[in-house]
Amino acid sequence: MATARLKTGETIEKPFEEMQQFVAENPELIEKQPSQMPRRRQYSKAAVAN
Fold first, then answer.
1. Which end of the chain is flanked by fewer CB atoms within 10 Å, N or C?
2. Are 16 and 2 in contact (CB under 8 A)?
3. φ and ψ at residue 4, rounded to 5 degrees
4. Domain assignment of residue 24, given as a range
């Protein structure tokens, strides 16, 4: 399952494939913040490895 927070403050939960479809069709409804957090963590690991 995937969870997304809408700009309305509502949180929705859908199977991952449905969520990808929903985000693709309604990008303006989704708050972007949650998806950026894991990426930042990966960056620091890569920096440590180098």
1. C
2. yes
3. -130, 145
4. 2-49
| CA distance linking residue 42 with residue 21, whole number of Å | 25
CB atoms within 10 A of CB 17: 9
Q: pLDDT tens digits for 7-46?
A: 888 998 999 999 899 989 988 888 765 554 455 555 555 5
pLDDT confidence of residue 43: 53
What is the sign of the dihedral through the CA atoms of 24, 30, 32 and 33?
A: negative
CA distance 33 to 37: 7
**0.85 surpassed by pTM:** no
Total domains present in the chain:
1
